[in-house]
Amino acid sequence: MHQQAKNAQKLFYVFVFIYGLFANPSESITPEVEQLIRSWSPLIWLHSEERFLPSTVEFFLPEVTIQDEQSILVQDYVTPETLIGGENSSVLHMQTREPLDCPACYNLDVFFGQSINNGSVPVYTIYREYDDAFNTLDVSYFAFYPYNRGKDACVGVPVNGSCVGAEKNLGNHVGDWEHNALRFRNGQPYIFHLNVHSFGSYYLWNESTNNFHFFLGEEVRTAVDQDNEPVEIEERYEPKYPPTVELIGTHPVVYSANGSHGLWGSPGMAWTTWDNLIIIPWLPSNTSYEGNLNWLNFLGDWGNSAEGCEYEIVTGECELGSGPSGPRSKVDFPDPQPKTSFSLNF
Ligand SMILES: *[C@@H]1O[C@H](CO)[C@@H](O)[C@H](O)[C@H]1NC(C)=O
Ligand SMILES: *[C@@H]1O[C@H](CO)[C@@H](O)[C@H](O)[C@H]1NC(C)=O
Ligand SMILES: *[C@@H]1O[C@H](CO)[C@@H](O)[C@H](O)[C@H]1NC(C)=O
Ligand SMILES: *[C@@H]1O[C@H](CO)[C@@H](O)[C@H](O)[C@H]1NC(C)=O
Ligand SMILES: *[C@@H]1O[C@H](CO)[C@@H](O)[C@H](O)[C@H]1NC(C)=O
Ligand SMILES: *[C@@H]1O[C@H](CO)[C@@H](O)[C@H](O)[C@H]1NC(C)=O
Q: Which keywords are on file for this protein (predicted)?
């Protein structure tokens, strides 16, 4: 390409980026906040044999249509800018244009995502600042994967460690939103929310050991503070959470298992998310994102409707489960206490 054209293209991208960032500028980000968001973004280890890689939203949308509960087409060709949003979208779902050969089949190229090299896949990062006594800053790091591979399960009779009868691959779904979140207080990390599918656990920052220590699992969220300090819960629930979240530099290290992206595996491909963060201000639910962030307003499911649910009664899972909801439906931390309150909550 001619140099001038290249420069023009660069300028265009810069423009698109800035336009996206401030598409709905309730306030602009301060360098201090941006620095915190970037320096504490996670390192995500993908399994060395991971085939179902993450992708951009732009990569995925051309492959789906928008349907309602009766599988009636509501929107055909969608882009991030034109995807339907708001309350009316909450009963909708995305459906791959090409059908799956079977509920547990993954015969579509889009499912294999994009290379994570050189920051080619962004992490959608939503931050929210509070005007409270701690200058609380919440940051949620969202990764999108076009496909989540399920696990083999025995739907026959398990005998002596093997399965007599049928073995099925259950818990697959089109579309997968995974996320982790950090709450900062006065410019320091305070608590980390590690998410594993529907389970989550909280880790408290420990300055002397320079890592995060297990605090509580999602199921025991009702834990109370004692002497104004969070207490560690004695009892541990399934799944077994790792006792700490370690750092590389200032980046929390999290693991993503083979195929299903929320579990821990062994180290493989390092996804250095700070190479490409799309930093997005949090907006209240009655306010819409605009421009190339309009896709955030979609409140339906980011994947095909469920199929192959014959074994759901026994196993609680379908061969193809329904898609997940998007970033705006996720809440990582309770609201901090207002400035006037003396109770220390998290
Ligand atoms: C939502 O759907 C209702 C009923 O179809 C329609 O009247 C309304 O205009 C829609 N709202 C928006 C914001 O599109
Ligand atoms: C990523 O960048 C490095 C260094 O600039 C380069 O050697 C490598 O080929 C790039 N990889 C891809 C997949 O673009
Ligand atoms: C299970 O394995 C044990 C030892 O390998 C064997 O004695 C037993 O007969 C097996 N039971 C069945 C039902 O196959
Ligand atoms: C940090 O970790 C050390 C070692 O486990 C522990 O003794 C100390 O109480 C922890 N500090 C906080 C603030 O949790
Ligand atoms: C990872 O998953 C792929 C299929 O997605 C499979 O071929 C491979 O054997 C798996 N590797 C491990 C170590 O489980
Ligand atoms: C959204 O709700 C808040 C408080 O509930 C209100 O102050 C604000 O004006 C609303 N914004 C819009 C665009 O409706």
A: Signal
